[in-house]
Here is the input.
Amino acid sequence: MKIKFNFLLSAALSVAALNVFAQAKFIHSHNDYANNTPFYRAYTNGFNSIEADIFLVDGKLLVSHSDKYLFAERSLKGMYLDPVLYGLKRDTTRRVNLLIDIKDDYRKTLPALVKELKPLEAYLLSPQNPNGRLKILISGNRPVPTNYKDYPGILWFDDDLVYPHTRTEWDRVGQVSLNFETWSKWKGQGAIPDADRKRLQKTVDSVHTFTGKLVRFWGAPDMPESWDTQIGFGADIIGTDKIEQLAAYLQKRSLRKPVTVAIPNKQAK
Here is the structure.
Protein backbone atom coordinates (compact mmCIF):
# COMPACT_ATOMS: atom_id res chain seq x y z
CA MET A 1 0.00 0.00 0.00
CA LYS A 2 2.94 2.30 0.65
CA ILE A 3 4.01 1.96 -2.98
CA LYS A 4 0.52 2.80 -4.16
CA PHE A 5 0.32 5.81 -1.85
CA ASN A 6 3.61 7.17 -3.15
CA PHE A 7 2.43 6.74 -6.72
CA LEU A 8 -0.84 8.48 -6.01
CA LEU A 9 0.81 11.31 -4.13
CA SER A 10 2.96 11.83 -7.20
CA ALA A 11 -0.21 11.62 -9.30
CA ALA A 12 -1.83 14.43 -7.36
CA LEU A 13 1.17 16.64 -8.01
CA SER A 14 1.23 15.69 -11.69
CA VAL A 15 -2.45 16.45 -12.15
CA ALA A 16 -2.05 19.82 -10.48
CA ALA A 17 0.69 20.66 -12.95
CA LEU A 18 -1.16 19.29 -15.97
CA ASN A 19 -4.75 20.30 -15.28
CA VAL A 20 -4.45 23.20 -17.71
CA PHE A 21 -4.85 20.69 -20.53
CA ALA A 22 -6.17 17.50 -18.97
CA GLN A 23 -9.73 18.78 -18.85
CA ALA A 24 -9.69 19.86 -22.49
CA LYS A 25 -7.87 16.95 -24.14
CA PHE A 26 -7.83 13.23 -23.54
CA ILE A 27 -4.32 11.81 -23.48
CA HIS A 28 -4.17 8.10 -24.12
CA SER A 29 -1.57 5.54 -23.08
CA HIS A 30 -1.51 3.17 -26.04
CA ASN A 31 -0.79 -0.49 -25.18
CA ASP A 32 -0.15 0.70 -21.65
CA TYR A 33 0.56 -2.80 -20.32
CA ALA A 34 3.71 -2.95 -22.46
CA ASN A 35 5.55 -0.26 -20.49
CA ASN A 36 7.64 -1.04 -17.40
CA THR A 37 5.07 0.30 -14.90
CA PRO A 38 1.57 -0.40 -16.24
CA PHE A 39 -1.23 1.94 -15.13
CA TYR A 40 0.79 3.94 -12.58
CA ARG A 41 3.20 5.43 -15.09
CA ALA A 42 0.35 6.89 -17.15
CA TYR A 43 -1.80 7.76 -14.15
CA THR A 44 0.93 9.69 -12.36
CA ASN A 45 1.61 11.68 -15.51
CA GLY A 46 -1.98 12.89 -15.67
CA PHE A 47 -3.23 10.57 -18.42
CA ASN A 48 -6.99 10.16 -18.46
CA SER A 49 -7.21 7.33 -21.02
CA ILE A 50 -5.41 4.00 -20.62
CA GLU A 51 -5.47 0.92 -22.83
CA ALA A 52 -5.30 -2.78 -21.95
CA ASP A 53 -5.67 -5.80 -24.25
CA ILE A 54 -7.29 -8.86 -22.69
CA PHE A 55 -7.90 -12.60 -23.17
CA LEU A 56 -10.19 -14.86 -21.17
CA VAL A 57 -8.19 -17.85 -19.93
CA ASP A 58 -9.80 -20.47 -17.67
CA GLY A 59 -12.29 -17.91 -16.40
CA LYS A 60 -9.64 -15.26 -15.69
CA LEU A 61 -9.06 -12.05 -17.66
CA LEU A 62 -5.37 -11.75 -18.54
CA VAL A 63 -3.62 -8.76 -20.08
CA SER A 64 -1.52 -9.29 -23.20
CA HIS A 65 -1.31 -8.27 -26.84
CA SER A 66 -0.76 -11.87 -27.94
CA ASP A 67 -1.91 -15.27 -26.71
CA LYS A 68 1.76 -16.29 -26.77
CA TYR A 69 2.47 -14.12 -23.73
CA LEU A 70 -0.24 -14.94 -21.23
CA PHE A 71 0.77 -15.11 -17.56
CA ALA A 72 -1.49 -15.68 -14.57
CA GLU A 73 0.09 -12.82 -12.63
CA ARG A 74 -0.77 -10.31 -15.39
CA SER A 75 -4.49 -10.14 -14.67
CA LEU A 76 -6.78 -7.26 -15.59
CA LYS A 77 -7.89 -7.09 -11.97
CA GLY A 78 -4.40 -6.82 -10.53
CA MET A 79 -2.90 -4.58 -13.21
CA TYR A 80 -5.82 -2.18 -13.81
CA LEU A 81 -9.08 -2.66 -11.95
CA ASP A 82 -7.66 -2.70 -8.42
CA PRO A 83 -5.27 0.24 -9.06
CA VAL A 84 -7.90 2.43 -10.73
CA LEU A 85 -10.39 1.70 -7.93
CA TYR A 86 -7.80 2.70 -5.35
CA GLY A 87 -6.94 5.82 -7.32
CA LEU A 88 -10.53 6.99 -7.74
CA LYS A 89 -11.23 6.47 -4.05
CA ARG A 90 -8.28 8.63 -3.05
CA ASP A 91 -8.68 11.36 -5.67
CA THR A 92 -12.31 12.36 -6.06
CA THR A 93 -11.53 14.69 -8.98
CA ARG A 94 -10.02 12.13 -11.35
CA ARG A 95 -11.89 10.78 -14.35
CA VAL A 96 -10.44 7.90 -16.32
CA ASN A 97 -11.29 6.12 -19.55
CA LEU A 98 -10.19 2.49 -19.59
CA LEU A 99 -10.05 1.24 -23.17
CA ILE A 100 -10.27 -2.55 -23.13
CA ASP A 101 -9.27 -4.24 -26.37
CA ILE A 102 -10.87 -7.70 -26.61
CA LYS A 103 -8.45 -10.09 -28.30
CA ASP A 104 -10.58 -13.23 -28.29
CA ASP A 105 -14.29 -14.10 -28.47
CA TYR A 106 -16.21 -11.13 -27.06
CA ARG A 107 -19.29 -13.30 -26.55
CA LYS A 108 -17.44 -15.12 -23.77
CA THR A 109 -15.11 -12.35 -22.60
CA LEU A 110 -17.59 -9.49 -22.17
CA PRO A 111 -19.81 -11.33 -19.63
CA ALA A 112 -16.65 -12.17 -17.64
CA LEU A 113 -15.61 -8.51 -17.79
CA VAL A 114 -19.01 -7.29 -16.57
CA LYS A 115 -18.75 -9.65 -13.61
CA GLU A 116 -15.22 -8.48 -12.80
CA LEU A 117 -16.30 -4.82 -12.91
CA LYS A 118 -18.85 -5.36 -10.15
CA PRO A 119 -16.64 -3.95 -7.33
CA LEU A 120 -16.27 -0.69 -9.31
CA GLU A 121 -20.01 -0.31 -9.91
CA ALA A 122 -20.35 2.97 -8.01
CA TYR A 123 -17.65 4.58 -10.18
CA LEU A 124 -18.73 3.31 -13.59
CA LEU A 125 -20.15 5.85 -16.03
CA SER A 126 -23.46 4.74 -17.52
CA PRO A 127 -26.82 6.25 -18.48
CA GLN A 128 -27.97 5.22 -15.01
CA ASN A 129 -24.89 6.74 -13.35
CA PRO A 130 -24.04 9.90 -15.33
CA ASN A 131 -21.65 11.07 -12.61
CA GLY A 132 -19.50 7.96 -12.83
CA ARG A 133 -15.80 8.76 -13.13
CA LEU A 134 -14.62 5.57 -14.83
CA LYS A 135 -15.64 4.96 -18.43
CA ILE A 136 -15.16 1.45 -19.80
CA LEU A 137 -14.67 1.48 -23.57
CA ILE A 138 -14.73 -1.77 -25.55
CA SER A 139 -12.49 -2.06 -28.60
CA GLY A 140 -11.02 -4.87 -30.70
CA ASN A 141 -13.39 -7.82 -31.10
CA ARG A 142 -16.76 -6.38 -30.16
CA PRO A 143 -20.43 -6.77 -31.05
CA VAL A 144 -21.96 -5.05 -34.05
CA PRO A 145 -24.04 -1.95 -33.23
CA THR A 146 -27.37 -3.80 -33.48
CA ASN A 147 -26.25 -5.96 -30.54
CA TYR A 148 -25.11 -3.16 -28.21
CA LYS A 149 -28.49 -3.37 -26.51
CA ASP A 150 -27.61 -6.85 -25.26
CA TYR A 151 -24.93 -5.44 -22.95
CA PRO A 152 -25.25 -3.34 -19.78
CA GLY A 153 -24.91 0.43 -19.94
CA ILE A 154 -21.59 0.37 -18.07
CA LEU A 155 -19.98 -0.72 -21.36
CA TRP A 156 -19.34 1.90 -24.03
CA PHE A 157 -18.09 1.01 -27.47
CA ASP A 158 -15.14 2.26 -29.50
CA ASP A 159 -16.30 2.75 -33.10
CA ASP A 160 -14.46 2.70 -36.43
CA LEU A 161 -17.24 3.99 -38.73
CA VAL A 162 -17.57 0.62 -40.47
CA TYR A 163 -21.23 -0.07 -39.62
CA PRO A 164 -24.29 2.18 -39.83
CA HIS A 165 -25.90 3.13 -36.51
CA THR A 166 -29.30 4.17 -35.34
CA ARG A 167 -29.44 7.10 -32.95
CA THR A 168 -29.91 4.70 -30.04
CA GLU A 169 -26.83 2.75 -31.12
CA TRP A 170 -24.76 5.94 -31.37
CA ASP A 171 -25.74 6.65 -27.77
CA ARG A 172 -23.71 3.57 -26.77
CA VAL A 173 -20.57 4.74 -28.60
CA GLY A 174 -17.97 6.35 -26.34
CA GLN A 175 -15.52 7.49 -29.01
CA VAL A 176 -14.44 6.96 -32.61
CA SER A 177 -10.97 5.50 -33.29
CA LEU A 178 -9.55 5.57 -36.81
CA ASN A 179 -6.37 4.37 -38.51
CA PHE A 180 -4.28 7.44 -39.28
CA GLU A 181 -2.68 5.76 -42.31
CA THR A 182 -6.04 5.53 -44.02
CA TRP A 183 -5.87 9.31 -44.47
CA SER A 184 -2.15 9.99 -44.54
CA LYS A 185 1.21 8.24 -44.98
CA TRP A 186 3.00 11.16 -43.32
CA LYS A 187 5.73 9.95 -40.95
CA GLY A 188 5.98 13.08 -38.85
CA GLN A 189 8.98 14.61 -40.62
CA GLY A 190 8.45 18.15 -41.85
CA ALA A 191 4.96 19.57 -42.35
CA ILE A 192 2.11 17.21 -43.13
CA PRO A 193 0.97 17.54 -46.77
CA ASP A 194 -1.83 20.06 -46.98
CA ALA A 195 -4.12 17.62 -48.80
CA ASP A 196 -3.69 15.08 -45.99
CA ARG A 197 -4.34 17.67 -43.31
CA LYS A 198 -7.54 18.74 -45.08
CA ARG A 199 -8.73 15.12 -45.33
CA LEU A 200 -8.08 14.57 -41.62
CA GLN A 201 -9.75 17.86 -40.70
CA LYS A 202 -12.81 17.00 -42.80
CA THR A 203 -13.06 13.58 -41.19
CA VAL A 204 -12.88 14.98 -37.65
CA ASP A 205 -15.39 17.72 -38.46
CA SER A 206 -17.79 15.18 -39.98
CA VAL A 207 -17.62 12.89 -36.96
CA HIS A 208 -18.19 15.83 -34.62
CA THR A 209 -21.09 17.16 -36.68
CA PHE A 210 -22.97 13.95 -37.40
CA THR A 211 -22.26 11.88 -34.28
CA GLY A 212 -21.06 14.29 -31.58
CA LYS A 213 -18.34 11.80 -30.64
CA LEU A 214 -14.69 12.28 -29.73
CA VAL A 215 -12.08 11.22 -32.29
CA ARG A 216 -8.81 9.34 -31.83
CA PHE A 217 -6.33 8.38 -34.55
CA TRP A 218 -4.25 5.28 -33.88
CA GLY A 219 -1.09 4.52 -35.83
CA ALA A 220 -0.17 8.22 -36.12
CA PRO A 221 3.50 9.21 -35.84
CA ASP A 222 4.39 9.35 -32.15
CA MET A 223 6.34 12.58 -31.85
CA PRO A 224 5.76 16.27 -31.03
CA GLU A 225 5.25 17.29 -34.68
CA SER A 226 2.44 14.76 -34.96
CA TRP A 227 0.86 15.59 -31.60
CA ASP A 228 0.81 19.27 -32.57
CA THR A 229 -0.67 18.45 -35.98
CA GLN A 230 -3.40 16.26 -34.47
CA ILE A 231 -4.38 18.98 -32.03
CA GLY A 232 -4.40 21.40 -34.95
CA PHE A 233 -6.94 19.46 -36.99
CA GLY A 234 -9.11 18.78 -33.95
CA ALA A 235 -8.38 15.22 -32.79
CA ASP A 236 -9.83 14.96 -29.28
CA ILE A 237 -7.66 12.11 -28.01
CA ILE A 238 -3.88 12.00 -28.47
CA GLY A 239 -2.35 8.55 -28.06
CA THR A 240 1.26 7.69 -27.34
CA ASP A 241 3.74 5.04 -26.24
CA LYS A 242 5.94 7.89 -24.92
CA ILE A 243 4.17 8.82 -21.72
CA GLU A 244 6.63 11.24 -20.13
CA GLN A 245 7.43 12.93 -23.44
CA LEU A 246 3.79 13.63 -24.29
CA ALA A 247 3.08 14.88 -20.76
CA ALA A 248 6.06 17.24 -20.91
CA TYR A 249 5.11 18.42 -24.40
CA LEU A 250 1.54 19.23 -23.36
CA GLN A 251 2.69 21.01 -20.23
CA LYS A 252 5.10 23.13 -22.27
CA ARG A 253 2.43 23.79 -24.90
CA SER A 254 -0.05 24.89 -22.25
CA LEU A 255 2.41 27.47 -21.02
CA ARG A 256 2.78 28.76 -24.56
CA LYS A 257 -0.93 29.01 -25.33
CA PRO A 258 -4.14 27.46 -23.98
CA VAL A 259 -5.16 24.07 -25.34
CA THR A 260 -8.88 24.41 -25.84
CA VAL A 261 -10.92 21.79 -27.60
CA ALA A 262 -14.69 22.05 -27.75
CA ILE A 263 -16.26 18.76 -26.72
CA PRO A 264 -19.27 18.38 -29.00
CA ASN A 265 -22.63 17.64 -27.41
CA LYS A 266 -24.66 17.22 -30.55
CA GLN A 267 -26.28 13.81 -30.84
CA ALA A 268 -26.69 11.83 -34.04
CA LYS A 269 -29.94 12.16 -35.88
